[in-house]
Specification:
The complex is a heterodimer.
Chain A (H helix, E strand, L loop, with lengths): L3 H22 L3 H22 L1 E2 L2 E2 L1 H32 L13
Antiparallel strand pairs in A: 1-2
Chain B lengths: L7 H22 L5 H27 L2 E4 L11 E4 L1 H24 L6 H19 L4 H19 L6 H32 L4 H10 L5 H18 L8 H7 L2 H26 L7 H21 L4 H30 L4 H40 L10 H4 L1 H15 L5 H13 L6 H30 L11 H19 L2 H16 L2
Antiparallel strand pairs in B: 1-2
The chains are: A mainly alpha, B mainly alpha.
Chain lengths: 103, 513
């Protein structure tokens, strides 16, 4: 019998794989940031899944997830400002066309 | 309400960070724009004073901790915890921050937006001290991200040029990915133990030793995740881009202390949570360390840009530190059950060496980046060929630069020699173990190899006939460099000054077990 939290944990793993794939394969910088956000969500979901006790989520997991959402938003904001500046310098968001960026 | 002493350094820096924009506006009103610089320097000095007070308190009353009791739903609480290990690294972080803020007064003069620069610098150091003082993963993650976000923005501070922006984006993606992988590991650990507090996790983990495979996944996640910021070799590729792109003062901070924070978290969380006697992560750390040293040495040899060469040399030195820590935990895993006393003393020796090298590299590499900042400030180029002989025109900076290079090359009277000696001797402490002997020999060969390019750089900068016009930098820039050079020489002549502290820190690291 698969329990609810196991299903959530599995989903979170799948999300993390999707996010990693997005970062590795996409050439657009915005999509790279979307990949990072998907992994943030995967980690948050994993915390909630593992904090699942007797039908409720542990308050520790909840507080970590709230903090993590805020931090994720801050990172995304910084990343987007960098994207704007890159666009001003190169006129493109294509990672392959940007001069030195080698992953 | 009286703020407890453990919180004071962090609180001072954060309040100062919040006030800096206001002070900056005030400075513009009274036509004295350097007011914000003085304010930042004062904040660092106050934080250093608070750390000194904390040192005496820990010396007398043992490790200090502070728990937010009011926040009851969190099991284990949000804990601020300081022992000698955290204090040792916090002193390095705050001290280098202090010197860099003095250096920035003159060096950053040409830039605009300096109120943001000093705010971010203060937040960076507050975040690093917070990471060092964390007693649980919740706290650690928040301070960690605070530090990371501040350093992304500082790397791309000169956003009107293409290089910082691009390097900053690369750094952001890699480092965020690393933090998220580490957080994924922490979430698994939370699922296994039901808490994020270090002490409570340790109790929960010490009772379950039969189920090892999930713990190895967690260990792998922690090494890979925090290893990105520590720039262990497969994850190091952001560093050679980010360090040259940042302003030289920030390169000194990044190379001197930010990557050390990664090493600190790696060592602290692994040693606190997983007993090295039961878990064999020492082998992994040693192999990663050796790989880091060897690969980065070859890469450093090919560089033409002075700051890029220094950046690769930072990766090499992180390799030494990781190897030292790995040797310590490997000795405990292999020999603790057969000869506990010998194993404990050898492991403490190896970790003392690693922490001593952490100090030496922070001082030496911080100074080298500040010197290269002086050179590029005068000559407006980072190419080694065009910088030839510039050290002869700038006597103080050039002399300090040579001391820094000799320290990192491990030439005997200087401080870097002693810490490398410690790590190498620790590798040979059990002569019957061929694997550790091999590691020791590789470290020795790599140090000789590294000495070659340090001396080559020394010859290019100091001995060749000068090509560019340059004159000595101002006192604000030379002062911090000379202080760091004096520390290098002093520690080289009297290594026991720091070894005593590093030994206490190593005992704190191993003390739990």
């Amino acid at each position: 019998m698969v329990e609810v939290w196991q299903a959530y944990m599995f989903c979170s793993f799948i999300l993390a794989i999707i996010g990693l794939y997005t970062i590795i394969s996409m050439r657009n910088m915005i999509r790279t940031i979307i990949g990072i956000e998907i992994i943030t969500i995967a980690v948050n979901l994993n915390f909630l899944a593992l904090g699942f006790r007797n039908g409720v989520v542990d308050s520790l997991a909840q507080s970590i997830v709230f903090t993590s959402i805020v931090i994720g938003a801050a990172v995304a904001a910084v990343a987007l400002t960098l994207v704007i500046n890159v666009y001003r310098h190169y006129g493109t968001l294509d990672l392959k066309k940007i001069r030195r960026l080698r992953w | 309400m009286v703020i407890p002493l453990v919180l004071q350094p962090i609180v001072i820096l954060l309040i100062a960070a919040g006030l800096t924009p206001l002070i900056s506006i005030l400075g513009e009103k009274i036509k004295f724009e350097k007011l914000r610089d003085l304010f930042a320097i004062l904040a660092f000095a106050l934080a250093l004073y608070a750390l000194t007070l904390l040192y005496f308190k820990i010396e007398n009353y043992g490790a200090q901790s502070f728990i937010l009791d009011n926040y009851l739903p969190i099991k284990g609480g949000v804990e601020i915890y300081a022992d000698f290990l955290s204090l040792f690294v916090a002193f390095i972080f705050c001290g280098l921050g202090f010197l860099v803020s003095i250096y920035s007064v003159k060096y950053m003069e040409v830039d605009t937006g300096l109120d943001r620069y000093y705010t971010l610098l203060l937040i960076l150091v507050a975040g690093m001290i917070g990471v060092a003082f964390s007693g649980d993963f919740f706290n650690l993650y928040v301070f960690w991200e605070m530090m990371c976000i501040a350093s992304y923005t500082l790397v791309s501070f000169r956003k009107y040029r293409w290089e910082p922006v691009e390097a900053g984006f690369k750094y952001l993606v890699m480092s965020t990915l690393g933090s998220l992988i580490a957080l994924y590991g922490i979430s698994l650990l939370y699922g296994l133990t039901g808490t994020v507090n270090f002490k409570m996790m340790k109790e929960a983990l010490s009772s379950t030793t039969n189920l090892q495979i999930p713990f190895y996944i967690v260990i792998a996640a922690i090494i890979a995740g925090f290893g990105v910021t520590a720039s262990i070799v497969p994850f190091h590729s952001w560093l050679p881009d980010a360090h040259p792109a940042a302003p030289s003062s920030i390169s000194a901070m990044l190379s001197g202390v930010v990557i050390k924070t990664g090493v600190y978290v790696l060592a602290r969380s692994l040693f606190t949570l997983f007993n090295p006697v039961n878990f064999n992560y020492g082998l992994t750390l040693m192999i990663f360390g050796i790989l880091t040293i060897t690969v980065a040495n070859f890469m450093a040899l090919m560089q033409k840009d002075i700051k890029r060469l220094l950046a690769y040399s930072s990766v090499v030195n992180i390799g030494y530190i990781i190897t030292g820590i790995g040797i310590g935990s490997y000795i405990l895993f292999e020999y603790y059950n057969s000869k506990p006393l010998a194993a404990l003393s050898a492991a403490a020796f190896a970790i003392t060496g690693a922490l001593f090298h952490l100090f030496n590299h922070a001082v030496g590499k911080g100074m080298l980046f500040l010197c290269s900042g002086c050179f590029t400030h005068e000559a407006a180029t980072r190419d080694i060929t065009s910088l030839e002989g510039i050290g002869r025109k700038m006597a103080w900076t050039g002399g300090s630069f040579s001391i820094g290079l000799l320290t990192l090359a491990g030439v005997p009277p200087f401080s870097g020699f002693w810490s490398k000696l410690f790590i190498i001797l620790a590798a040979f402490s059990f002569p019957e173990n061929n694997f550790m002997n091999t590691i020791g020999i590789i470290v020795v060969l790599n140090s000789i190899f590294a000495a070659v390019y340090y001396l080559w750089l020394l010859q290019r900068i100091m001995i060749k006939t000068p090509k560019v016009k340059a004159s000595e930098a101002s006192l604000f820039m030379v002062g911090p460099i000379i202080v760091l050079a004096v520390i290098c020489v002093l520690i080289g002549l009297m290594p026991s000054l720091i070894i005593v502290l590093a030994e206490k820190a190593a005992k704190a690291m191993l003390g739990g077990w």
